[in-house]
Amino acid sequence: MTSRYDILFQPIQIGPVTAPNRFYQVPHCNGFGWRMPEGMAAMRGMKAEGGWGVVCTEETEIHYTSDLSPFFEGRIWSDDDIPTWQLMTEAVHKHGALAGIELTYNSHDASNLYSRAAAFGPRSAGITGGSGYEPGQSRAASKEDLKQVRKWHRNAAIRAKKAGFDIVYCYAAHNMTLAFHLLSKDNDRADEYGGSLENRVRFLRELIEDTKDAVGDTCAVAVRFAVDELLGADGMQFDGEAQDIVGMLAELPDLWDVNVSNWANDSVTSRFGKEGHQEKYISFVKKLTTKPVVGVGRYTSPDSMVSAIERGIMDLIGAARPSIADPFLPNKIKAGKHEDIRECIGCNICVTGDTRFVPIRCTQNPTMGEEWRRGWHPEIIAPKKSADEILIVGAGPAGLEAASALGQRGYHVILTDARREAGGRVLLESALPNLNEWRRVMDYRLTKINKAENIFFYPSSPMTVQDVLEAGAPHVILATGATWRRDGMGRYLTRPVQGSAKIFTPDDLMNNNFPSGKVLIYDDDHYYMGGVLAELLTQNGCEVTLMTPAPSISYWTQFTLEQDRILKRMHDLNISLLPNHIIASHDPKTATVTNVITSAESTLPCDGIVMVTDRIPNDALYHELKPALAEGKLKSLRLIGDAEAPNIIAQAIFSGHLAAREFDEIIDPDVTPFKVPR
Predict the structure, then answer these.
(1) What is the pLDDT of residues 521-554, one digit of tens each?
(2) What is the pLDDT of residue 2?
(3) What is the C-alpha to C-alpha distance for residues 23 and 34, in angstroms, rounded to an integer?
(4) Does the pLDDT value for residue 294 go beyond 90?
(5) Is 362 one of the annotated active-site residues of the chain?
């Protein structure tokens, strides 16, 4: 029986190899890198098991002079690295997928903090890797140096072939690689590698030719190329030199992997970019080459994927984030189980695995990064060990995940919530400006819960101790959330702020209790909430000042690659920004604020203050039920999510999933509950 989606499962010839379908996990960083090869391999293997026809590495250093520390990426410096990569290629090949490796030499984007070597660049330029503001410069590469880099790249390609890779990349994207830097209009070298476009393309051409000569008999050679930097005339443009570059090299590689630069543009969050947002920039490529083209755009809809192929935008559907949120997305489409797809919400928590140097994690998929160390599978969970009933109080992200996973195990689950609608903080936050895709967190879990015959949801059911005990369930899990503080206490201020102003919290605003006039937002949370509420209040006619003790607004969002866009939006909305300041005191019309650097005080007029600081766990019911546990009226009592320790939504989901996995298990608190690479 034919299906509209059959086109997604057609094999595609890529040079000497054949991809089994059109699902292509493009190279993406993951925080494992060279230091945690087992975790990296298991994570990639899970994608192949889930149906991704091509599964690629992260950027992989070809030489010690392109050391990307402090980030943990791949390394293929020597033959000693081959066994590490064989772990991955074997895990991917086990499920019939192709394995690709993205080789990189990163020029002035390599900080070389570990190797302490001088990286080669088109010229001696300030180091941008690491923090982005490293106090050092690259070395201007001579023609002999460029020959040496070509040799290192060739050697790395040969090692990749020995390790079992099917696709080897020449990387010129994300404003990070020597090949891309030489393509730049700013390349003013006086030799045959600078000046004219033909000269600037020369190095990339040579890399492709070298790689094809070295491994092209059995490995496909791919080019990853950023066709636009979104800098206008100051950078690469899709309707300018990018077309000339693709035209010059059109038939040379076996595959074109095209995107926009830099990473913050390529992986824009859903708050600022929607599905298919790169099509405008990459659609020209297929018109200039007969070779397969892969592109990305955070595609989660099967219909959008088919449309992108039918409209001639791309031949293969590239994905990083959607493959993280649901490694089994291809298999679910093939089985017609579209409603079971765990859709990416575009929050970029996955990105923070790399930017914070820890294993990758995902808001939607709590098993991401846990495949090897905890043995977690995104679709398989151990069956129940008893016939005991479980009561879960609170249907926010933690409660929904716990109920869904326990129900999947086969337990009889009663889920209650005080509100008329499930979702907790996700329900409220997804209604804030441009966070509507975050609703997928609750929608996915409610879909599973509604289909399960052993999960019973009771909304509009606030629970007291007596209610819990009368319910008769021997096991109780409390996912009762947290409440935003009103007193200003948080990371910076450890005592309540004194005063008489009208005080509001995010809870007030999300429940439609708004201030008016001049409003001061004091943000000691540093993630998305302060900026989103500033936007909301501006839409409601308020004159907003957004203040924070941090050096910059929404400081932590630098790690989700969206801080610059947040700052631009604040400026576009005429929101006053005041970093490095705290509230000292307040009255009905003013707030006294203190500069945390100089200690200078000043007074701001304001008709209301919104405190975005710490949250107070709603754990009273837990403490009230502990005597019942001690008396044997309950077999177990567990606190999860924000009620245990307020955190990001991803951690609430993880907490709920962990509770479901550990239920009926004997947990030794003195034993590390996961494998640690040594």
Answers:
(1) 999 999 999 999 999 999 999 999 999 999 999 9
(2) 84
(3) 26
(4) yes
(5) no
Active-site position among 24, 29, 81, 326: 29
Where on the phi/psi map is residue 460: left (φ > 0), alpha (ψ -120 to 50), or beta? Answer: left
Among the listed residues 171, 193, 444, 555, the single catalytic one is 171
Rg, Å, the chain Cα set: 27
**C-alpha–C-alpha distance, residues 489 and 347, integer Å:** 27
Q: Strand pairing partners for 520?
A: 545, 609
Residue 266 structure tokens: 């390529």
Given the residues 109, 166, 210, 266, select the one marked as catalytic: 266
Other Cβ atoms less than 10 A from the Cβ of 90: the count is 14
637 pLDDT more than 90: yes
Q: What is the mean pLDDT of the chain?
A: 97
**One-letter amino acid of 35:** R
Our answer to whether residue 266 is catalytic in this structure is yes
**29 included as an active-site residue:** yes
C-beta separation of 648 from 366 below 8 A: no
- Residue that has been written with the tokens 């936050």 in this structure: 429
Reference 530, options 588, 475, 569; nearest CA is 569
pLDDT at 130: 87
pLDDT, mean of residues 649-657: 98
Residue type, 199: N
Give the span between the Cα atoms of 496 and 502, in whole angstroms. Answer: 15
Alpha-helical regions (H) of 164-235: 178-183, 197-215
Residue appearing with tokens 């605003």: 509
Helix (H) or strand (E) holding 19: strand 17-19
The CA distance from 609 to 516, in Å, is 10
Cis previous bond, 262, omega within 30: yes
The reported pLDDT for the residue numbered 678 is 86
Q: Which helix (H) or strand (E) holds 615?
A: strand 615-617
The more confidently predicted of residues 363 and 119 is: 363
pLDDT at residue 447, as a whole number: 97
Residue 423 has which token pair?
Answer: 């979702």
Q: Is residue 438 helix, strand or coil?
A: helix
- pLDDT higher than 80, residue 1: no
Please tell me the predicted confidence (pLDDT) of residue 10.
98
Active site residue 171: yes
Residues in the chain: 678
Q: Which of 174, 181, 475, 581 is catalytic?
A: 174
Residue 530: how many other CB atoms lie within 10 Å: 28
Helix (H) / strand (E) element for 41: namely: helix 37-49
Q: Other C-beta atoms within 10 Å of 501: how many?
A: 20
Give pLDDT tens digits for 328-354.
999 999 999 999 999 999 999 999 999
Count Cβ atoms below 10 Å from residue 179 Cβ, excluding itself.
Answer: 28
CB 656 within 8 A of CB 445: no
Tokens (6 digits) for 372: 């090897």
Neighbours of 374 (CB within 10 A): 14
Ramachandran bin of 15, using left for φ above 0, alpha for ψ from -120 to 50, beta for the remaining angles: left
The DSSP bridge pattern shows strands 590-595 and 581-586 to be antiparallel
